[in-house]
Write a structure and sequence with these properties.
heterodimer; A: alpha/beta; Dimethylsulfoxide Reductase, domain 2; Barwin-like endoglucanases; seven-stranded mixed beta sheet; about 30% helix; B: elongated
Amino acid sequence: MSSNKKYWKSVEELNENSSIVETLQQNEFVEEIPTDEFLGDKESLGSSSTTRRDFLKYVGFSTAAASLAACEGPVIKSIPYVVQPTEIIPGVANYYATTIANGFDFASVLVKTREGRPIKIENNTDAATNGMANARVQASVLELYDSRRVKTPQKGEVRISWDDLMSETTAALNGLSDDKQIVFLTATMPSPSTHKLIAEFSEKYGNVKHVAYDAISDSATLDAYEAKYGKRGMANYDFSKARTIVSVGADFLGDWQGGGFESGYATKRIPENGKMSRHIQFESNMTLSGANADKRVPLTPNQQKLALAKLYSLVVGGSVSVDLPENIAAAVQSAANEIKTAGSNAVVVTGIQDVNAQTVALEINDHLNSKAFDASTTIKTRQGSDKAVMQLVADMKAGKVGAVIMNGVNPMYTLPNAADFKEGLDKVDLSIAFALKVDETSSNCDYIAAASHNLESWGDFELKSGHYSLMQPTIRPLFDTKQFQEALLVWNGNSASYRNYLKSTWTADILDGASFNKAVQAGVFVGASTSSVEVEDNMTDASDEDTSVAPRRNAARALARSANASGMELSLYTKTGMGDGQQANNPWLQEFPDPITRTTWDNYLTVSKTDADALGLENWNVANGGLNGSYANVTVNGVTLEKVPVIVQPGQAKGSVGLAFGYGRTSEALMKEMRVGANAYPLYQGFNNVQSVTVEKASGEHEFACVQLHNTLMGRGDIIKETTLEIFNTKDKHVWNKVPEVSLNHIETPVTSPDVDLWESFDRSIGHHFNLSIDLNACTGCGACVIACHAENNVPVVGKTEMRRSRDMHWLRIDRYYSSEETGFEGDNEKKDNISGLGSSLSEFGEMESPADNPQVAFQPVMCQHCNHAPCETVCPVAATAHGRQGQNHMAYNRCVGTRYCANNCPYKVRRFNWFLYNNNEEFDFNYAMNDDLGKMVLNPDVTVRSRGVMEKCSMCIQKTQKTILDAKREGRPVKDGEFQTACSAACGNGAMIFGDVNDKDSKIAELKEDNRAYHLLEHVGTKPNVVYQTKVRNTKEA
Amino acid sequence: MKKSYQNLEDNSTNNMKQVIYRNLTSTILHLGFILLLTFSTSVIAQEGDPANGKALFNANCAACHKLDRDMTGPMLRNVEARLAEEEGLDRTWLNSWIRNSSGLIKSGDAYANKVYNKWNKTAMTAFPQLSDQDISDILAYTAQPKPEPVVLEQVNIDGGGGEAGVSNNLILGALALLFGLLALALILVKRTLNRFAEAKGLEVVKEKRTPLWKAFAQNQFLLLVTAIFFLLASGYFVYGYLMQVGVDQGYEPVQPIHYSHRIHAGDNGIDCKYCHSSARVSKHSGIPSLNICMNCHKAIANVAPETLAEGKSEYGVDYDAEIQKLYDAVGWNGTGYTGESKPVKWIRIHNLPDFAYFNHSQHVSVAGIECQTCHGPVEEMEIMYQHSPLTMGWCINCHRETNVKVKDNGYYTKIHEELSKKYGVDQLTAAQMGGLECGKCHY
């Protein structure tokens, strides 16, 4: 046993008397299949007019009719190009480097296109900045093919032509009286050429204002940075250079400061030469960062402020008097000690949206001279200013604004005071919205300018100072759309195309003699220095005279003083799957299980166990294995969200609750299945993500689609092997990563020995033998691999009700386990060692003292393990699943008859059954990647779309390995290490997933397979999987 | 020449240019005159050799000119005679035009400019390398009369076959007659014998016999055997019927354009991969886009008369009309593209089910398999049809029998060495390489 700790997947498991857990341990179904309902009802069976004979006749007739109908093959047309573009060869994929930048996510990516259609987004590994696509960026390719996109420009609800729109708006702009402003309200666009265009626009029209608006504001961060360094931006952090990371409320593995920090973080999480980074997290909601931390301290947002102030005084100096509970004060003290020990190897980050807090964090890093902290390179992916937005709303209401031109924003949905905005909008003479959809905002504007998708547009983005990313179209606009910049050119009276404008801007200002085409090809460009394109385009800067920032020395004290909340505190956050909610109509993202709660198709109020008990809120599992929960009414400052579903979240700080943005949209721009959850934006008052809140129980119960209790591993522990850095460094492998043993002739023999094997082994030493290594230390649970797998393998979306029935189709799931160590009770390990049998272990879990308070968390991606001795293969009556000698477990869909024996016999529960026809089926029209002609363009033509009644599962991306082999064959060369990739390994920017050929002795995977940390899932079963996991090592020892 | 001079003067708005041109023109005029004097005798004396002319024409002119049809340039049959007749231009003009048309145009020659403008200001390539003799050969070739279309004699298709049928019938008829006579003879013999017997007073006893069908019905064993036989037989046929469901071997649909692989791949010997180029690199062999057709058909609007006649008689197809269909689709009016195109909706012949993955480049580029191995004698097919059954059994069979082409392929070096040691063979079949595994084709 690597560790004696027991994992549990749900608080339900801790409930001593939960019959459901017990039932699920023993049976596949929680309750008997209700066959009696049908067969037992003699009356209706007897009264049926269809006799047995008639039934057989019908069956016979329909079979004959069906087979006759099948005899005539359809005539299939094949239509070639009239003039084939030279760069397109049917059947061969092209890759283009471009950028996804939607105001919330910014990433340099590669786009795979087939026959001219983008079908998948992949990481641009050449990019120095944001080269890793997160789950939302991966999914944005489906957004392109959303049939609810606005297809032509509209004037109100009437469709008009672009010419009309441009001439009418130009006339209107010219006709505005001079005292009225023209305002650009855009999402953050760190685009040098766009800024230049807007500057030119304001030269022409005068009285122009540009307001950048981030739906989720980082205004405080920007203000603090600006006050200290004189530039509006955010400090850059490279966590690969940090040995000690202390985060106070910063989910830097999530969307903190625009995201993109996980790759650097993960590199130092893999123990190397006995060293790895140490990560201490102070937070209220359970976030990805908290889940990955070595030490996590739950505390309310208010306490976070105090803790940060205290940390400042301990590290930098000065005195603040803070009133913190003893255990938190001790944790702060020890964190301070560790920071001081690490010196410049330490870094402190904070996500508290408070200028003082951000200033304090900058001060600490400055004081430490932290290596991970890079104040000279500025992150530019957030530029919004709360004050400017508020000013704009006020101006609009006061009738000072003549025209407002919006791009990439949806304030009617995202503004807390949307009603005020609406009122103001009605007073504006001319309102134009560049939008992908007829959404909450654009439907209220005079003109809806149908905007092109990122994948149809040109663009340039300065992600960090000096680090540029270029956007190029990967497909012609599908509809009659234009991008914002094209319209700007027209308004400016410039007849150049935006591409040419972009090129000339770049040639003049950025490239410094380098080739534009090369830059476009690479998708990224790192300039010698930050650009001279720091264009002042009337970007309103609210913090100029913000005096609250000035007295920096007192920031800590001011911070401590500002912490004066009473009662329950609400932390608003963004979910990994949904972000700010602009992709809410994306079924891939709706069905993406949240890494922490494992819940799909919902947002919810996360409440700690203690608070839930006090408020009478609860979660329980119902007969079909689904999760139900109470509702709560959430009131902030007079604004009440009614009937918000509640999830009891282990690790949630007592006295705090959490609620995610991005849900609760009601616009027609979304299919009705996607209009789920509660809208948290009305609670986001004053752009403060922390609010004082009252929570009270509401009537009714909510049905969650949670994959939490599904796929239980039948109580078998040792799924995740875990140890501490100290043991890892000092003890032998047998202590912390022991191979299970069985008795052979009364001698304990490791299960890996051929002597105890039931099976003859095939010779796999020749040719390729694929293995996938998953490093539990580097996996942050971000889920990019899940969406990448979705896109690559045409995985269907099944919808909320089917998810609730645990009929999820994800080939790759990321299991999340909570542990109960480090919660302060002694003798825990001993107790667990003494547990005999399953029933006893369950009862003893319950005896443990409030284990849900602050669990440790581990993520484990699980897909088909491709067992060399696969239990599924032996039970298939039709040999539909068979083993290839390259190590992959093959699944021939056309051979499968759907007995599901294989799924029942799979110890890992990774096989997925097509209960319904998910393609070309109106019932599943929300799965538009398979159901409407436009959505189907995203399908990967190399992978079969499965039909009803067949089993499917991870194929280890055999289409990709075969492609790699074929390329090598055609070029007549051996395959190089690193060439073999699966969709998940390619999507993983953290280096947690390494794929390759173990018969190539020099490969990385061959080395990893023999690593001391390597183990197989459920090794004692003897399945000999081809997926190998690396034991999780926690750096728990305090420095 | 005078005319052109005036023309220039009229058209020109720039005096400077005018002067220059005037000077240039007069220079050329003088030079031309001298040239004419020098060579006039020899020019007239030269007799062209049409055979050499044809070769030169095909090598130099045929890319843009046809004898009887306008193409990139005008049609050239009897060009010399026509020029002399209509424009009063002689060989000298032609020589200078052919050797340096742009020079002639610049010189302000009226007809040269007229032609230049008429043909969308496309300058003709200069051929300074052609000698006078060459030019006269070419002109001699163009001066040949248009050959009358060759009309092939209608071959009586039924002829030979019909004769054979008649003779067979005759033999069969004779045989039938013979057997009929024999049967008649037997009946007569029997009757005569009966009469003899009657005459001698012998009583012919008729034996009471169970009818054959009754005996058969009474014999349980025989019934069982027959039943089994019929069941097996019907099973055989039902199986046979079911196994051909979805197998479209021999599928030969009527295509929107009658495209003859026989002419292209057979008679003209065009490599398959010239048109189906993506077979080299892609999973699809690709149906050639129309611009590939136009690579050649820009110049070929008509097939050879023999071919045309053959098509009409043998296949009932006017090949020229089919080429015209291509032009309509691609939007070619004989001299340029109109921009109005409509894609050709071919009917797909070779169809693998979606769940079977097949990659052409693997077979064509890596394995070096001839296209004909699977697609049959395409070079003989007037209309393309599916030659192979394209069933899994057919695939598997080939994978079992075919050796992998490992020579000179760096990818196979290691695996071949190890596998051939393992199996103790020198040549490895695709099956031994793992080519029978389900997942290699089904994913």
